[in-house]
């Protein structure tokens, strides 16, 4: 029997995946946009909708990036609202373990699980810099190793809170004259957290909401193998996907876990066309819309840590090398290279080999895994990745908000269903049932 494909939809929000100039591009903050994408994903029988988190607007050279000026609404608020307009779709949100506290995150996620009837998921991330920390009263930042220590204890503490109510716990049983039964006082005393009391939210429909983890470092992979239900990976090519898949799955037995207990779902984009040639031409046009000349120069400046505004984005790479000792020009994006000189050397080699301009190089090195072709070809490719153990499924990131997922649901999902690798209807009510039921 073939493996079943898992699918999630990422709200494209504020990033360079979104094509702002397209006449079909809509609001990134109106609730109607979130509702449209969620309803489309549920119509396509997707496992869950995925929201990122932005704790500070990204900046470049001291100015807010133009893609962020629309703002970033609170993740849990949006998910709570979406629970009222969906019935089966899982609702996953990113919440930082660096600038939040276990008690409040446990309450927020447990509350969404109750509101949605068991469809909540939490994407656990760490936040790396003091720049983000300035938005919070304690400010500052944690070193990399300390972030993961905090994250691991943070998650363990949240799980303790979720488990502090027994499955059959009751409050206010008038018939039997019992005020409370099955509610344990929680006590957690560790290097990161020292808290005690009573958790205010009863045990949730899932018992434990789904936990997603997005780290790619060795520490992140180990953390996911030990604690996560889903890992949100950036490894999109078939070969790198297989390597990542095998590496993470081999770590599971050390924690008493089976390979099927952790799902690997890379991010992926898609472009559909009436013919393969048409799809590839559309994909090329979309990438040029996503990476405008100013965007290409800004991206290069992230690595060079120099003002490169005088350079032509359609010209060659600068002859000058990055400044490895300079403060980063860009804040709030993931890319902060440990060895910018090595990155520059690698990019120079790629640009020379393929005769690429700055803009063409940025398009080359920033491309997500893309499925490009006819609907049938895209369905075949997705199935190949899953059956080849390069992934368990994909988190799809459309380039348009809010209607970018419509064509995939209308044209690709039926072909996956025809192949017998994707559900024709939901068979369970909770997200855990969607992801792990046989």
Polypeptide structure, described:
The structure is a single chain. By secondary structure, the chain is of the alpha/beta class. The protein folds into two domains: 6-273 and 374-436, Luciferase-like domain (TIM Barrel); 277-366, no CATH class. The chain has 14 helices and 17 strands. The strands form four sheets. A ten-stranded parallel sheet has the order 13-12-11-6-5-2-1-17-14-16, with helices on both faces. A three-stranded antiparallel sheet has the order 4-3-15. A hairpin with a 4-residue loop joins β9 and β10 (194-197).
Element layout with pairings:
Layout: E1 6-10, H1 31-43, E2 48-51, E3 59-60, E4 63-64, H2 75-82, E5 90-96, H3 102-116, E6 120-125, H4 130-133, H5 144-162, E7 165-173, E8 178-183, E9 186-189, E10 194-197, E11 210-213, H6 218-227, E12 230-231, H7 238-250, E13 263-264, E14 267-272, H8 276-290, H9 293-304, E15 330-331, H10 340-354, H11 358-366, E16 370-373, H12 375-387, E17 393-396, H13 406-418, H14 431-436
Parallel strand pairs: 1-2, 1-17, 2-5, 5-6, 6-11, 11-12, 12-13, 14-16, 14-17
Antiparallel strand pairs: 3-4, 3-15, 7-8, 9-10
Q: Give the class-level CATH name of the largest domain.
A: Alpha Beta
Radius of gyration: 22 Å
Unreliable runs: none
The third-level CATH topology of the largest domain is TIM Barrel
Shape: globular
Percent of residues in helices: 25-40%
